[in-house]
Amino acid sequence: MEDEPVNIREFQELAKQVLPKMFFDYYNGGADDEHTLRENMEAYKRIMLRPRILVDVSKIDMSTTLLGFKMQSPIMVAPTGIHKYAHPEGEVATARAAAACNTLMVLSFSSSRKLEDVASSCNSIRFFQLYVYKNREVSATLVRRAEKYGFKAIVLTVDTNRLGRREKDIKNKLIIPQLSNLEGLLNVDVEQEGGSDLEAFASQTLDPSLCWKDIEWLRSITSLPIILKGILTAEDAIKAVELGASGIVVSNHGARQLDYSPATISVLEEVVKAVSGAVPVLLDGGIRRGTDVFKALALGAKAVLVGRPILYGLAAKGEKGVKSVIKMLQGELELAMALCGTPSISDITRKHVQTEGDRLRSLL
Asked: pTM of this prediction?
């Protein structure tokens, strides 16, 4: 494919061509039968747009704010691990690209570059993703470092008290490098006969006792806003708000945890209605087009987080590829807004989409 990619699928194909199979499968794979992985994308196809005509769209404003921070568009960089598998500069290249696009990046705890290096690489707003370990001091140390180096929020992943069964990683006998942010805190060298090193590392280090009371513990060690990532139900969304969460990410971990959990876009509206505007609701999973972003916004998301497409861009063309992916999605969103008659983000409403449920109700 000699021409510049014109969509995310073409970036995905380029990434597949240049990456070793083990690394591509790590980025691209899901849990078990990968039903949820497919459904994350297929669910968007069942949502139709309802464009309005004869609206002045000579100027399109995609800008939005999250926790008071302004972004050029509601398209953020999701936390994903080990970017050095895709490119030697790893998360530093990703951070620079996000900064150039004036968007917000959530840095993964499993970054292959130290959070200090990422923080000093460019001037932009960043959040830090946190996992909770059996040794709580490891998590507390990461929080203190993130706060010291200017990260503006903690994104606590709440759906990974055990690691999902990722069969591609098991078959490939995935080897993980020393994770830079854990140097001196945790050793990733694990005793494992066959299978995935990541699975063995997670089972030995992640805290399966993590529960709601630990949100209070996290709040006691940081003044940063805490966003809970991994919520899929109204009940958990309400509980998160009651315990003082500053935001929610509707996420199934990129379909890498519990297979046959729902596609995130299919439960977004349930969560949005449950929190009733008390906190911003974000969404990740399955975003491949600007129209997907538009649909998420219409169903109540404040912004979306994009994961795999960023890695495809990084693998294919480094920092330039990440910028291209972000700008591609921004351009597609801008066009969708124009063609739907919505000159600003605030103009996008529930009336601009028709879901499967809407169609069923219309038949009753």
From this structure: 0.95
